[in-house]
Amino acid sequence: MGSFDELEQIREQALVDLTGASTTAALEAWEDRYLGRKGEITLRARTVGQLPQENRPAFGQRVNEIKRLLVQAYEARAEEISHAELETRLATEAIDVTLPGRPVTPGHLHLTTQALRELYAIFGKMGFEVYEAPDVELEAYNFDLLNIPEYHPARDMWDTFWVKETGEGPSNRRLLRTHTSPGQIRAMRERCPEPIRVILPGKCYRYEQITVRAEHQFYQLEGLAVGRGITMTDLIGTIAQFARMFYGPDRTVRVRGSYFPFTEPSVEVDTECILCGGKGCPVCKYTGWLEVAGAGMVHPVVLENGGYDPETWSGFAFGFGVERPSMMKYNVQDIRWFYGNDLRFLRRF
Ligand code: DAH
Predict the structure, then answer these.
(1) How far apart are CA 102 and CA 43, in angstroms?
(2) Mind listing the pLDDT tens digit for each residue in 183-224?
(3) Is the dihedral of CA 329, 330, 332, 335 positive or negative?
């Protein structure tokens, strides 16, 4: 036990084995086998105490020398191996940075948003500012204050989504606004006694059968002007100017008498069909005219509900759907496509 010869044999064998270890795993196994806690060299070092006294120093010294030598050899080999492993990784996992990147498809604004922004710009030039009103509305604003009391037959014009009741009394019930007109009352109550010139964009909701022509959600744009001496001429001029800016410079408009509870008198405004220019085609159902907006002079009761004295103040209002004009402009045949999130449709605009 503890012979010098054996020690030298171990050293030789260890160095041979080390050359054979070519991976980090093999290297670790080698370290375990020779230098580890129960490794060959470590075990030999522990036998020093069992040797005859006179052999101990020389043997101990040689064990230490060999250990140092093996540790050095180990470290050199470890360096070689990690270098080689890095080289293989660099060769096999190489990324070709000269390859062209994958193209990123940029998104764009929804057709409705584009239309709304165009409308804001047009009315902005005529001095109208955007006024936002809530989607979830009180029954009072959506109906009563617009001169449509409970049991008024005109309520049938708007089939309503009701929100679970939260308020006291009938006119405090909540609903999803069926039109943007309730914003008129909000704007008037906030601005009174100042003159007003606002447009009120927003989503409206109706409890309706969905078809190619009707959705239960859609956008409207409402307009309201209140001042002293505002007349029907101002209304017609404003809408005619809008039609020229939106549909083209040569558009003429026509005005037909109509009925809305919140305006008196009430009208409907048409413009020459943008497709056939008035000759008659399927889009205008061969009439030559397209409906542009419902409108009228703000009803005295509505002015009063907004805080304005109808003896000294007057105003006009109008309202129209936002998807319809886009449908006519781009010949979109199905209003449901606006809400279908089908990219084949959305990418067209
Ligand atoms: N609120 C009406 C609707 O949804 C549209 C409308 C008509 C708005 C006449 C107005 C107006 O401001 O004066 O059918």
Answers:
(1) 60
(2) 999 999 999 999 999 999 999 999 988 888 888 999 999 999
(3) negative
Structure tokens at 323: 């998807």
Nearest ligand 1 atom to the CA of 320 is 5
- Scan for tokens 């129960």, then name that residue: 38
Atom of ligand 1 nearest to the CA of 180: 1
- The predicted model gives 268-281 an average pLDDT of 87
Segment holding 137, helix H or strand E:
strand 136-138
* CA geometry: angle 28, 32, 36, nearest 5 deg: 130
How many other C-beta atoms lie within 10 A of the C-beta of residue 143?
27
Q: Which atom of ligand 1 lies closest to the CA of 319?
A: 8
The domain locations on the chain are 2-92, 111-346
- The closest of 300, 303, 318 to 192, measured between CA atoms, is 303
Q: Estimate the crossing angle of helix 24-34 against helix 4-20, to 10 degrees.
A: 170
pTM equals 0.71
How many Å apart are CA 66 and CA 315, to the nearest integer? 106
Give the fold, CATH level 3, of 111-346.
Answer: BirA Bifunctional Protein; domain 2 (3.30.930)
pLDDT-derived band at 280 (thresholds 50, 70, 90) equals confident
Q: Is 317 in the pocket of ligand 1 (CB under 6 A)?
A: yes
pLDDT, average across residues 236-251: 91
**Torsional class of 317: left (φ above 0), alpha (ψ -120 to 50), beta (otherwise):** beta
What mean pLDDT do residues 97-107 have? 89
With a 6 Å cutoff on the Cβ, whether 294 touches ligand 1 is yes
Task: Please report the pLDDT score of residue 134 as a whole number.
Answer: 97
